[in-house]
Amino acid sequence: MESFDLLQPYKIAEETFVIPWALEAPPVGHFPMNSMVIRGAEPVLVDTGAPAVRSQWLEAAWSVVDPLDVRWIFLTHDDRDHAGNLLAVLAACPNATLLTTWFSIGRMAEEWETPVNRCRFMTDGDTIDAGDRTLVAKRPPLYDNPTTRALFDPKANVLWAVDTFATNVPTPVPETAALSPDEFRDGQFFGGRLVSPWVALLDAQKFGAVVDDFQHLNAEVIAGCHCPVLRGAQISEAYDLLRQLPGVPPWAEFTQADLDEWMAVAESSVPPEQPRPSGT
């Protein structure tokens, strides 16, 4: 790939595109905030982006597919970075059915009323016929929301892993191949514990069986909201790192002392206020 710009969709497989975004996350770099479009015979939006960049996200999505052609909106879960533009997307895509869950609709009701007549429930193991492909919903090994389902496209061999494989990155990149081995390993350990701190409570053998089941989808390309795209040997490496997470000590959260230190540094770097000219 010659260039990489946030909110500029890029192709990751046949008829499959990631819409990339990222948040600065000092002092650990950046966190990807991605979504995906499957163009295909019956186009699918996979998550709807964050409200902070609504107009840019919508423009990016409609540069890949005409909103009138969109037939399915797969909402992995109701967190704001995934569902933030849902109402705008539903309004722009009158021919689309929302693939969601009963619990997600309930959780979103505190902010808006989801049009139930446009919904279809798609829980773990369910499939949907999208014309030229059959998509599979799958509970991922790691998640930060109880409604979460990943999405697997066997035709393109692409897995949308949602928040599993989350990682911080020094600077936004399209694929994990751009990371050093240390950045890749440390990022997987950091992101996994950040997204799912409960992983430290798990029985490693039982968790390993869940990881094995997910890996047996045999995806050739893995994309996700909070990770660059994984391919090749890094896919099996990511699964191996995932299996190790129950035995990794929990991540120590940043404290008020850290915040005080950051604020002191920020204040020391601000130029002193200049005196105002007389008469103002």
Automatic annotation (TrEMBL):
SMART domains: Lactamase_B. It holds the Pfam family Lactamase_B. It comes from the Bacteria. InterPro entries: Metallo-B-lactamas (IPR001279), RibonucZ/Hydroxyglut_hydro (IPR036866). Residues 32-193 form the Metallo-beta-lactamase domain. This is Flavodoxin protein. The lineage of its organism: Bacteria, Bacillati, Actinomycetota, Actinomycetes, Kitasatosporales.
